[in-house]
Each structure stands twice: as structure tokens, then as C-alpha cells.
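INTERNAL AUDIT FORM
Audit reference: QA-55
Scope: verify that the stored structure record matches its stored sequence.
Auditor: D.O.
Record contents follow.
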Amino acid sequence: MKQTVNRALVLAALAFVALTGCSAMDAQNPSGVLRPVNAVADGSDPHLMLNGADIVAYFVQGRPMRGSAQFSSTYEDVTFRFASAEHKALFDAQPKRYLPQFGGYCTNGIVYGIPWGGDMDTWRIIDDKLYIFGGQGSKDAFELDVAGNLKLAQHYWADEVAGTNSFWQRGKRLVFRVPHYKTGAALAAEVASARSQQ
């Protein structure tokens, strides 16, 4: 019975992938080594990182900023936009220094092997690396155990996610969950409990 349910879930996930359209799938899965990435297609930019957020601004300004098509660079088949020529020059000189970790997907999602989400307004820099989150709830859950969750995210990114198709990986891990999987409600309850003890 369980095997039949699992097969049905896999088929449902595959149908979901087919119905979501090729545009999003193409945007998140460029041909370069940065694959998958939290990207969208925008005009002539088929793989625009973080919906055009200026990734250098997090380091230099200490806040998210929207980039402009006027100041853009392409690195490994992914387009990055910047708020100024200065930010573009910093990126062009050292692109790897500014890249968001885990393809710009929600860091807490990667803890579960799921490349999904990522909100330019919810972020954190840890050891001079940029981490993006899918919202404040995801960030709060991640921060319950930064070291442990970072170790899990690095493991799943290296062993499962990096170099794969985002939609296939997402579908797989939504059906076949990691052993430590917790629902959003369970994580929210843990966050609330931790806050009540402070």
C-alpha cells in the first residue's frame, strides 16, 4: 500500500513539473556550473538571479537593494543586476565572493534537500557568505540551530542538489522526505517555544 501511495505521489510530482511550464524550469537550471539557481526569466535575461536583487548590496550597504538592467553582469550563464556601477565592478572583480549560497534558494529549504523559495528581503551573512531565506519564519527556524542546520544544508547541497534540475530535486524531496523533516507548523511551534523560554 505504501509503495503504491509513493508511486502516486511521484507521478503527481512529475505532473506538477510538467504543468508548471518550461519557462521557470529553464530559468532555474542554466547550463553553467551555477545550477540550480533561484532565477527567473526577465526580458532578454533568461536566468536572472534573485529576481534582480543586487547581491553586492548585502555586503556593502548591509541591506537588500533592487538592481538595474543598466548595471548587469553575466557569470556562468546567470545574470546579476546591481544598483550601481561600483557594485557591478566589485562583483566583476570577485564574483564568487558575492554569490548567494545554495543558488540563492531558501537556506532552510536546502536543510531538507528542497531547492525552493528565496526572498531577497530575508537574509543573513554568516562567515562572510550570503544566505537567503524564504521568509522570516524560515529564517527563524534555521536560527534555532545555525551550526547544525548549516551543516545539513551543506550536506544536501553537495550530495543532492548542486548540479541537478531544481524541479526534479524539489519533487523528489517533497515526496521522499529527509529523515529529519519537519512541517512548517512544527517548525513554527519550535520557534515559539524557544522564544517563550528567552
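Auditor finding: record pair retrieved intact. The beta strands are 39-42, 45-49, 68-75, 78-82, 119-126, 129-133.
Action required: none
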